[in-house]
Amino acid sequence: MWLVRPARPDDLQSILEIAGAQGARLSSTLPKQEEALARKIEHSQASFAGANDPELPPRFLFVLEDTRTGTLHGTAGIDSRAGNGQPFYNYRRDALIHASHELGISRRVEVLYPSHGLTDRTLLCSFTTRPERVGTEAFELLSRARMLFIAEHRSWFGSRMVVEIQGVQHENGRVPFWDSLGRHFFNMDFQAADQYSSLLSKTFIAELMPPNPIYVTLLSPEAQAALGQPHRLTVPNLELLQREGFQAGNYLDIFDAGPVLEARTDTLRTLVTSHRKTLHGSHDDSGETCLIAGGEGSGFRCTLARATDTLEGDVRVPVETWHLLEKSAGDTVRMAPL
Amino acid sequence: MWLVRPARPDDLQSILEIAGAQGARLSSTLPKQEEALARKIEHSQASFAGANDPELPPRFLFVLEDTRTGTLHGTAGIDSRAGNGQPFYNYRRDALIHASHELGISRRVEVLYPSHGLTDRTLLCSFTTRPERVGTEAFELLSRARMLFIAEHRSWFGSRMVVEIQGVQHENGRVPFWDSLGRHFFNMDFQAADQYSSLLSKTFIAELMPPNPIYVTLLSPEAQAALGQPHRLTVPNLELLQREGFQAGNYLDIFDAGPVLEARTDTLRTLVTSHRKTLHGSHDDSGETCLIAGGEGSGFRCTLARATDTLEGDVRVPVETWHLLEKSAGDTVRMAPL
Amino acid sequence: MLVIRPLQQGDLDDLYAMALNAGKGLTTLPADRDLLQRKIDLAQDTFNQRCEPEAGLYLFALEDTEVGRTVGISGIQARVGLDEVFYNYRLSLTVNASRELGVHVRTPTLQLSNDMTDTSEICSLLLASDYKGGGNGLLLSRCRFMYLDEFRKHFSDKVFAEMRGVSDAQGRSPLWDALGSKFFDMEFGEADRLSGLGNKSFIAELMPKYPIYLSMLPESARAVIGQVHENTRPALRMLQAEGFNFNGLVDIFDGGPVVEAFVHNIRTVRESVTRYVLVTQKPVPLEVPPAERVMVSNRSFQDFRVTTLPTPCVGTETVRMSPAVAEVLGVESGDSVRVAPLKEGGRWPGPAGRDGEQEHETRPGRVRRHRSHSSWG
Amino acid sequence: MLVIRPLQQGDLDDLYAMALNAGKGLTTLPADRDLLQRKIDLAQDTFNQRCEPEAGLYLFALEDTEVGRTVGISGIQARVGLDEVFYNYRLSLTVNASRELGVHVRTPTLQLSNDMTDTSEICSLLLASDYKGGGNGLLLSRCRFMYLDEFRKHFSDKVFAEMRGVSDAQGRSPLWDALGSKFFDMEFGEADRLSGLGNKSFIAELMPKYPIYLSMLPESARAVIGQVHENTRPALRMLQAEGFNFNGLVDIFDGGPVVEAFVHNIRTVRESVTRYVLVTQKPVPLEVPPAERVMVSNRSFQDFRVTTLPTPCVGTETVRMSPAVAEVLGVESGDSVRVAPLKEGGRWPGPAGRDGEQEHETRPGRVRRHRSHSSWG
User: Fold this and answer.
1) Chain pair A-C, CB pairs under 8 angstroms
2) Catalytic residue among C104, C154, C229, C370
3) Claim to verify: residue B22 and residue B159 sit in the same structural domain
4) Dist. CA D246–CA D230, nearest whole Å
5) Closest residue to A201, CB basis, from B95, B101, B116
6) Which residue does chain B place closest to D99, by CA atoms?
7) Are residues B143 and B265 in the same domain?
8) Looking at beta carbons, which residues of chain B come within 8 Å of D210?
9) What is the pLDDT of residue D145?
């Protein structure tokens, strides 16, 4: 059985293993350093418990567990406020029209503006799974469990959400956008900048990032082609998020120019289609597979179950599912179709 | 009876009278110079007739006529491509976060970026009426007739629409945003700049407008307060457009910082709620008052009528309405609820 | 004899021929008869004070009096940027450093600048190819400094020159290809021509307004910023010898440098002295190398003349000249003339500096006659 | 006797007392014992060449040898902007013009600049108030130009000074109130202090990056850009007399100007000559006005000393001095010393310029002994 639950300190080694396996191929906001990860889990636990220090906005880290073996297969996170109290950096892609009436010339000049416009929105992040899970029901469970968590704790989150999708990177680790822009200013390779970004305060970005807008036409052709393009390996995740209602807007990642997806929280498919139900037992293993979540804060659990939907406000699922959710008959759960 | 129809050359004096009566109180994109207005009407006629010179994108000018007296009571326009082939200038309001981790300081710094991001969207413009018509059914007819025209000629227009709403101006003609910003660069008063803007090519804006972003905090407090605020007298128009589905985004007028409203064409209320119907006669003067439009291109007419909606695709209106629309029984019209 | 004088109406044909031969790259003097005629008219209006002093264009012709042919031109624009906007890029530095990460990166940037607005420009130098050498280029260029010195109130305290930047034999500019061409939908030559015609609103409309980070440009483009075309190197060396320095501004199209100097610091100005004319029949050998010649100007605003004489003609109070030279300069014995070395490091009698002049002016008893040409020329 | 020498360990108490009396506005020398001690340590490392040449901070003390008290300090920072980013605003001009409308508007702008990066700065001048006058300030300031000249390879070709900008008696700066305070959530004094402590990453984080259009600032703020505090006017005049000019850069907080000069153009450098020491018992009247005194340096890198002597002590080859002065300078008869006028326009024997020096060096027969202090001091 697949279970999504808050990360615990004893998950540390398993998470490191999953994060490490991503290697340079697919970075995420998940630190690969033991100490940094331990701090992140600790902060997540406090956030699930309801702590809300204005200096340290809540950040939640979930894990996907195979309950039969006790092994972890993935992680997913929510930062309640993008930037976590610091500026959240993006480039905003916009166009200026350079037109000369007299000469009859009109050119569309694309410009990347440094922007903090998405700061404080709710951010989905830290999404990683073992490669064999990509595209499976468990993959979808891990991603969408977060939406159910948000639905159950709506007041903890903002009205607008964002997700950063990793941008184009070659097999050899080269990131064309970085090589054409960031490298000149940060004087380090993409991997180093990406790691610093997840480990350090954003001061170094304020210090090193070019403060003025960038003309797209002066980027390398390869970098121009990469603007707003997702990394090949992120496509399953991207498509899942698009089905959820996320759309690419005008924002790009400052390091690799990957697209930033945006959505209004209350129109996300899982939030719209999920409902609270009263839990009842079922001995039947037929029915449709759906997401089912229960528990508040630290007690939050989410799993997949075959549910038979009897009456309006009721749901029947196997008793095994009750145990996973740490719930019993008559308790309230939230469910959404897969 | 109120009729909205394409402007004709012989409307010139009446339109000048209406435009002139607006005086400095409420500017619009309607030229107050006879020659310029004559050219605008001529261009509008060509546009209604289906002309589409890539150098001269279609621009439509409608008038509101009281058919009992033959007098005009208002004008309304659509520019098929904002900027009319030249850049369409706005300020885009955005915020940067200036934060020092070390000092524990975080400030939200608002910036106005010169933008052409709305260039080529479809623009509603030139909306003026006699003061006594403001807020009446005729006022609504004049504004919304344009949506019916767009619905009937959907391929002539873009997928996104914008409207510029005039910003704050004092009784004495002073425009606080202009006085704090534009005046320093254009070296003229607001009225002059506004007039040049409707008369001349936009070269003078490219030449005179400060090319770099503007920090809001350096504007006068009065100008800061005026950002995105509508002129008192535009409120009825603004509310009508909001009901139609237009929303203020991040764009502001470069001269007076009035809000620019945006909408997706296909979600506008009039487009969504209007339907094609087959015309039938009615001797009954009961029924609901609705907008009813017929005719293609230069033949477009729109009026208000008491309609009794009999069968699905039919509508019954007084024969008088047929005449106004230059239609007869069995012809197709488009109607929308008021 | 070769003499500098104001450009005048009869010069059009010679000017046009020179412009034709000069080919591309001299945008201030295109081979366009109408435009050249307008320049002659403007120069005439300027010398005759029929235009606003700030709008003045002082164009000097180098005439070979033996053949009656104009063989060179040079000029001073009283002020730039008054009618059209005058654009340069400022080559500046952006430093980004993070102590935490031990990173320190310097990025040169080009920022749009109008900082030369209202400054006097020396410009339009062109010498017929068959007259090159023998110090003619020096005379054509440096006569302007004698004029600047003489009539300082008509010019700014600081003057500048734009030097032609690097382009290849086909007229392609590496900076244009990497930067300008991305924003201006035209060839370098066309942009340069439009700009030279004074038709500059297209620059405000089309050019990038935000700073350009040079690290994003290819090496070929970065290498030419602030560099001069190889044909312009002698002119640059000459100006450097006069005390002109690169001021951080470059041409927006080809990246050629702007050099500037305070008028009072220009070597020709610092080394120039006044003397009284002594017309003499005693023959002097006129054909001496440039290093042994001095420029002599008649100090006239309206009918400015400069020619060269052998250095030994200059005494402590007078400068000796033949009646022919005096006639060309329009001076008589006793008139005050200004004298300066033609070539830097050339022979120069007596103490350098303006001291000589001051000495004279405190001893008026020795002066026979002194009239100012600027009032009657 | 008043003598310039490198700052040394025993100077801390006197320095702290001076800094306390100086009050606000001297951010490079705050009344902070730890910070002052670090500066002394750095200066000692610098003179003893124990730090990277670029990181050097050359601090000179003015000591009254009679009372053994340090009464002044001045310094040269070998290079700025290497460790921390060095920020200025460049006062530039943006011209917007429309020929069609006949509009021509000039808008001064402030653009963030790091252009002084890697340049030598003269800094930290402070003189005890009871020693003001009598040319002590001139000595304290100008001794640095003798040092710059002597050891040019340790410094940049161009040097600059930041001049304190306008603030009122309460330390309020009009530019700060109109501009800085809108972006930095702190008082001017606090920002200035943080900046002076070398704690500058907050500037990168908080300050506006886009150009500031001055027409949007109140007149009170515009009026002080490039202007110095009234207490700083004498220092500015002194530097101007040395040939320093405003270079278009201003302080980002108070708008005070940056002035710069090429080392070879500095008056003290141009007018300095070398002479040989002639120790003599013949008494000379030491108490003469500044205009009749010269600075004499011992030319030592590590143990640099400068004091003043009456101008008549300087001969065409030698400079005469008492054994006491020679002892203070650490020189003996026959040693080479550098001499320059203390005050501009002061009496100066023989031809100005370095010609005198060259003459000597081409006639070594007259030299009895010549040793360079920079190798053994």
Assistant:
1) 90
2) C229
3) yes
4) 17
5) B101
6) B204
7) yes
8) 111, 212-213, 215
9) 97
Cross-chain CB nearest to C205 (options A98, A184, A196):
A98
What's the pLDDT band for C358 if we cut at 50, 70, 90? very low
The vertex-B56 CA angle with B51 and B61, nearest 5°, equals 70
Q: Report the C-alpha gap between B142 and C102 in whole angstroms.
A: 65
Q: What is the CATH number of the domain that holds B23?
A: 3.40.630.30
B211 touches chain C (CB under 8 A): yes
On chain A, the residues whose CB falls within 8 A of the CB of B92 are 94
- Mean pLDDT within B263-280: 93
Q: What is the pLDDT of residue D25?
A: 53
**CB atoms C101 and A204 under 8 Å:** yes
Q: Choosing among B207, B214, B216, which should be mutated to test the D contact, i.e. which has the most D CBs within 10 A?
A: B207
Global pTM value: 0.86
Q: Are C94 and D85 in contact (CB under 8 A)?
A: no
Least confident of A81-95, A280-294, D105-119: A280-294
| B97 domain residue, yes or no | no
**Given A219, A236, A270, which residue is the final one in a domain?**
A270
Nearest-Cα distance to chain C for A188, in Å, is 9
- pLDDT for residue A25: 47
In A178-237, the residues whose Cβ lies within 8 Å of chain B are: 201-203, 206
| Positions of chain D with pLDDT under 70 | 23-28, 196-200, 346-377
pLDDT for A26: 54
Burial string for D206-232 (b: 16+ CB within 10 Å, else e) reads bbbbbbbbbbbbeeebbebbbbbbeeb
Length of chain B: 338
Under the banding of pLDDT at 50, 70 and 90, the label for residue C352 is: very low
pLDDT in tens, C108-159: 999 999 999 999 999 988 999 899 888 999 999 999 999 999 999 999 999 9
What is the β-pairing status of strands B275-282 and A275-282? Answer: unpaired
pLDDT tens sequence across C36-49: 999 999 999 999 99
Alpha-helix residue ranges (DSSP H) falling in chain A? 12-22, 34-48, 137-152, 176-180, 182-186, 190-199, 203-208, 221-226, 235-244, 269-273, 319-325
Residue-wise pLDDT for A205-261, tens only, equals: 888 889 899 999 999 999 999 999 999 989 999 999 999 999 999 999 999 999 999
CATH fold of the domain at D272-341: Barwin-like endoglucanases (2.40.40)
Task: Give how many domains chain B has, as a whole number.
Answer: 2
Residue A210 and residue D155: Cα distance in Å, rounded? 29
More confident: C171 or B124: B124
Buried b (16+ CB within 10 A) or exposed e, C94-118: bbbbbbebebbbebbbbbbbbbbbb
Range of the domain at A319: 274-337
How many helices (H) and strands (E) in chain C? 12, 15
Say whether residue D99 is in contact with chain A using an 8 A CB cutoff. Answer: no
For residues C190 and A27, the model is more confident at C190
Residues B307 and B254 in one domain: no
**Chain A within 8 Å of C101 (Cβ-Cβ)?**
yes
Residue A106 lies in a domain: no
Q: Which CATH class is domain C1-77+123-147?
A: alpha beta
Query: Which residues of chain B lie closer than 8 angstroms to C204, CB-CB?
Result: 206-207
pLDDT of residue C215: 94
Contacting residues of C for A105, CB less than 8 Å apart: 184-186, 202, 206
Q: Which candidate in A170, A231, A275, A280 is catalytic?
A: A231
Last residue in a domain, options A270, A305, A324: A270
Q: CA quadruple C124, C129, C130, C132: dihedral positive or negative?
A: positive
Contacts of B94 in chain A (CB under 8 A): 92, 113, 115, 117
The answer, for D95 touching chain B at a CB cutoff of 8 Å, is no
B231 is catalytic: yes
Q: Do A94 and B96 touch (CB under 8 A)?
A: no
Distances (CA, A) of C104 to A185, C92, D81: 9, 16, 10
- Smallest CA–CA distance from C247 into chain D, residue: D247
Kindly report the CATH number assigned to the domain that includes residue B333. 2.40.40.20
